[in-house]
Amino acid sequence: MAKKNQSPNAGVVAAEVPKELKLHMLRQMISLRRFEEEVKRLYCAGEITGAIHLYVGQEAVAVGACACLRDDDYATSGHRPHGHCLAKVFDLNRTMAEMMGRETGLSRGRGGSMHQFDKAKGFLGGNGIVAGGVGIALGAAFASKYRGTDQVTVCFFSDGASNQGVVHEAMNIASLWKLPVIWLCENNQIAATTTVARSTCTPDIAPRAEAYCIPWAICDGNAVLDVYRTVGEAVARARRGEGSTFIECKTYRLEPHCGIIADQRPKEELALWRSPKKDCIKRFEALLVGDKTFTPQEIEAMHRRVEQEIAGAVEFARKSSFPAPETLYDNVWAEGAKS
Ligand SMILES: Cc1ncc(C[n+]2csc(CCOP(=O)(O)OP(=O)(O)O)c2C)c(N)n1
Questions:
Q1: Domain count, the chain
Q2: Residue 261 predicted with pLDDT over 90
C-alpha cells in the first residue's frame, strides 16, 4: 500500500486490466454521466423535484472503486449518491424511477435523490446528513467481521464531511478492531461554496489517518485505473483481515453544488476540468484508444447504446405509477407517526 502520493502511471496499469473490465468501467462511466445529464434536464422540466446534487466529473471514483467490489460487499454514500448507487447497483431503470418518485424505484419512490438504497446489491444508501454514512459503514464492517465473512465496506464521503467528528471516531474504532472498511474521501476541492483551502488546515486529508495507525494513499480521482488499483489493494488488505485503509481521491465536481444554482467558481477553472486533459471520461477514452483497446468508432457506438438505455430508463419511470396514498405508512416503524 502506497503511503504517500505514489500513484503509478495509469498506462502501466492499463496493460494489466482485462479488456472486459475496461469495457465495463467505460460503459459505467458514460452511463453515470448521461444519467445525470438527463436528471438535470428532467429537473429543469419539473419531472424531478426536491434537491439534487450531481456527481458529474467524479465518475472515475465511484466506478473505479466499485469495480473492486462484489455484490455482497457494502457501500455507503452521502447527499451526492447517484454515482455511487449506479456504480454499485447498476440498475438505470430503478434508479431513474426513484429519482422520479415512482413505486418501481429502488426505495419504492420514497427516497428520491438522496435516499436510494439496495440491500440486495449492498448499497446502504445515500444520506442527507453530511458524514451520515460514516457510522453506517462502520456498523456494516463490524457486522461482517462479527459474522466471520470476508465482505468489505467502502464508505464514500467528501472533503467537507472529513471535518465532521464522526469520521475521526469511526476511524479510531475501525483501526482498533481491524474492521474491513475503506474510507474513501473524494476531495472535489469544495464543500458547497467553501473551498478546502478555507476549511481544512492541511493540503491533503489522507495523512490524518496516520494518527489512527491506518495506512493511507492519495490517488488521481480522475484516472479510473488509478482508483481501481489503489482501492483494489485496500480491498485485498481488508479481505485478508488486515483492517482499514484511508484513500483520498483528488477530483472535481463539474456541476454546481445543488440543482441548478449559480456556480461561483472561476470559469477558467471549470473549463480546465471539463477539458480532455482533466475530464475523467475523455482521459479514459484517450487512454483506451491510445493503447488500441478500442477504436473511436467502438466508443461512439457505446455512447449511442448508453443513450438508448437512458431513454429506456426514463420511459420505464414515466410508465410506472406513483406510490398509492394508502401505502404512505408502509415501513414506518414509529407508531406515533401513523396517528
Ligand atoms: C450535518 C450537516 N451539516 C450541513 C449540511 C448542509 N450541507 C449539505 S451538503 C454540504 C456540503 C458538503 O460538502 P462535502 O462533504 O465536501 O461534499 P460535496 O458536496 O463536495 O460532495 C453541506 C454543508 C448537511 N446536510 N448536514
A1: 1
A2: no
Residue 334, in any domain of the structure: no
pLDDT at 11: 52
* Beta-sheet strand order (sheet of 181-187): 74-76, 153-158, 181-187, 245-250, 216-220
**Percent with pLDDT over 70 in the chain:** 95
Within a domain: 332: no
Answer yes or no: is 2 within a domain.
Answer: no
**Atom 20 of ligand 1: nearest residue by CA position:** 191
Is the minimum distance from the CB of 159 to ligand 1 under 6 angstroms? yes
For residues 133, 85, 233, 243, the Cα torsion angle rounded to the nearest 10 degrees is 30
Ligand 1 lined by 80 (C-beta under 6 Å): yes
Distance (angstroms) between ligand 1 centre and the Cα of 257 equals 9
Cα of 53 from ligand 1 centre, angstroms:
10
- Which atom of ligand 1 is the closest one to the Cα of 257? 19
What is the domain extent for residue 109? 10-318
Q: Which of 239, 243, 147, 160 is nearest to 195 (CA)?
A: 160
The conformational region for residue 213 under phi > 0 = left, psi -120 to 50 = alpha, else beta, is left
Q: Output the CA–CA distances (angstroms, integers) from residue 141 to 43, 115, 152, 269, in the order listed.
A: 35, 20, 6, 38
Q: Is the pLDDT of residue 337 over 80?
A: no
Q: Check which CATH number belongs to the domain holding 178 and give it.
A: 3.40.50.970
Measured CA to CA, the distance from residue 191 to residue 167 in angstroms comes to 16
- CA dist 84 and 121 (Å) reads 12
Residue 1 lies in a domain: no
